[in-house]
Flagellar motor switch protein FliG
Amino acid sequence: MSANELAKMSDLSGLEQSAMLLVSMGSEGAAKVLAHMNSQHVQHVSQVMARLSNVKQEDAELVLQRLFEDYRSQAGIARASRSYLQRTLDSALGDQLAKGLLDSIYGDEVKTLVQRLEWVEPQLLARQIAPEHPQLQAVLLGLLPPEAASQVLQRLPVASHDELLVRIAQLSELDRGVIEELKQLVDRCLLVANERSHTRVTGVSQVAGILNRFEGDRGQLMEMLKLHDDRLAAEVELNMFDFIILGRQSDEVLQSLLQEVPQETLALALKGVDLELKRKLMEALPKRMAQSLETQVMALGQVPLSRAESARTEVMQIARQMMEAGEFELQLYEEQVVE
């Protein structure tokens, strides 16, 4: 790559480049790549994919070019795939011995399957496994990541905690019968979770859209919603106040808001955001302040996505406080327009 091309690439974060690659692959190819990531990585890159807009062809071509150059720089001999080793070791050792050896090389396939339950709400997962035998509960909890297992355990009956912890501590190898039962349990949990999550996400987004367009007392409706379900009301509010909506505000609103945001917080919030949104916010600032902010953003280098998201949340909290104080009105949705 030329110096100019490298400079352009440096303007794109690693997450943005990954998101552009995944989008360019199409849904089937992207799904295969995402299947090899853990839940945190999938969540982070999916958020960036959802926010991509106005991607220039030259930027996309540079990202693809870098991918192929990195690929060419790797060794010419690829490692053996699991399916290749499965066929080879089956012939040499027999099915059962080959299975044990492959599990020690690649990790237990059941553990990978169970880790998909990281996406399931702990309360829902606890409710699904509660009727099962304690040993099966212990196996599932023993294969979940510790943080997820702890959250599920807290939602199971307290009287069962001691027994489950002892059973988990005594786990060793699993026989095929237990593995089959576990697979069926995981499938049931995922099926119920998928059915509920599709309905829940659509419903929350729909309520947020209704409230954003409601011409009456939105505050009263939100208070009524809180009386029914505080957690659900909080999700609706989060759907209404997203950092991306700042791209729909007037320069006057942005100037009022950004003057109240600490520059360090704003610099963090701008790390990894959509380039068009970043440009919109920069143009709302005085030229000297925008230049100083850009310098600070670049000086930060790579930062954890969690820090950037925390800063964006802080910006939106300030925006909400100013809106509630009557200092301005935020446009929380994009109205359809006609010619």
